[in-house]
Design a protein that fits this description.
The protein has 347 residues and is an alpha/beta fold. The protein has three domains: 53 residues, lambda repressor-like DNA-binding domains (434 Repressor (Amino-terminal Domain), Orthogonal Bundle), CATH 1.10.260; 127 residues, Rossmann fold; 136 residues, Response regulator (Rossmann fold), CATH 3.40.50.2300. Helices cover 41% and strands 17% of the residues. The chain contains twelve helices and twelve strands. A six-stranded parallel β-sheet has the order 2-1-3-4-5-11, sandwiched between helices. A six-stranded mixed β-sheet has the order 7-6-8-9-10-12, with helices on both faces.
């Protein structure tokens, strides 16, 4: 009996134009070659590296579009900023840019593209259109704005959706975000601890995250007793709009001796308005922000803030989303907000 010829080696092949050619050159089945190129765990690392090296040497790349069609995958994740409460907000906001960068890095490592949208909702069907578009395999929302009911309705039928934001009672969708109420309380407690007694909150309370920060702020003021008074200024949280509102407040009211702003961007607008009014920080007015964006450490004075760990948050958003895409159970995650004390609120 004549023995069958051995499988061809990479030296026997001059052109690899298909998975069949690659499998023949590697001496494996077509399915093994395909799984090796996709990084599937069923292929051992030595075999995967050998097949990948062979493919690279011949400049072979599998047809990703055809593979995605077979798997009914787009290999894209939607990343959406809904702006029902703050239509003037932009993706250039330092907080959004920071979180976007971490998410983009994590999704790229998994071989996924981003489909980025900034949505100003005009009706209750905007999210249905996104998830039914056929363009994405899952969706990350940066904030829930005033759209929690819309998100809840869609999440009841569409599992791969996760939201950066506050955890609300009875919600169906999964969230990742800091404990906003605790963060607001820690900001107020710090200001009271350094001897401040006339506190002012700055923020737009129509979004759940900011409403929770205000509630925590008020909790801490209530616990402090009658010697501490607090007020709240509802404002649009874009830099120019916030600056105008704060400047107007300072001309019409006695200056507070402490400010807690619902975001670092608003806190920076407060620093500007106070300086223009001839008030010094922290001597006349102590200021605390929220988020700990990169710029917070570089203001003059450097900004005290409540840090949200965006590195951990982005990883959690991605992990939860891919568990939902795979049909696996997942849970919301609430991060512990950390007080970062800098020059804007020293005693």
């Amino acid at each position: 009996m004549i023995a069958p010829p051995p499988p061809p080696s990479s030296g026997d092949v001059t052109t690899i134009a298909s998975l069949v050619d690659l499998a023949q050159a590697a001496g494996t089945s077509v399915s093994t070659a395909s799984r090796a190129l996709s990084g599937h765990s069923s292929v051992n690392e030595k075999t995967r590296l050998r097949i990948q090296k062979l493919a690279d040497a011949h400049g072979f790349q599998p047809n990703r579009l055809a593979r995605n069609l077979r798997l009914q995958r787009t290999q894209s994740i939607g990343l959406v900023l809904p702006l029902g409460h703050e239509a003037g907000q932009h993706l250039s906001d330092p907080f959004f840019l920071s979180l976007l960068g971490h998410l983009a890095d994590g999704l790229t490592e998994r071989g996924y593209d981003l489909v980025l949208s900034r949505v100003i909702p005009h009706d209750g069907t905007w999210l249905d259109r996104l998830v039914d578009s056929g363009r994405i395999d899952g969706l990350i929302l940066i904030g829930q704005s005033d759209q929690s009911d819309v998100i809840d309705k869609v999440a009841a039928r569409y599992a791969p959706i996760v939201v950066w934001g506050a955890r609300l009672p009875g919600q169906r969708y999964l969230t990742v975000g800091s404990d906003n109420r605790l963060g607001g309380a820690r900001a107020a407690e710090h200001l009271i601890a350094i001897g401040r007694r006339r506190l002012l909150y700055l923020g737009n309370a129509s979004a759940p995250e900011f409403a929770e920060r205000l509630a925590g702020f008020q909790d801490a003021v209530s616990r402090a007793g009658p010697g501490v008074a607090a007020a709240a200024l509802d404002l649009h949280m874009t830099p120019d709009a916030a600056h105008l509102a704060i400047a107007k407040y300072l001309t019409e009211h006695p200056a507070p001796d402490a400010i807690f702003a619902a975001s670092d961007v608003v806190a920076m607008s407060a620093l500007r308005a106070l300086r223009e009014r001839g008030l010094s920080v922290p001597q006349d007015v102590a200021v605390v922000g929220y988020d700990d964006v990169t710029l917070a450490a570089h203001t003059a004075p450097a900004l005290t803030t409540i840090r949200q760990d965006l590195v951990v948050g982005a990883k959690a958003l991605i992990e939860i989303l891919f568990r939902r895409i795979a049909g696996e159970p997942a849970q919301s995650l609430q991060l512990d907000p950390q007080l970062i004390v800098r020059g804007s609120s020293v005693a």
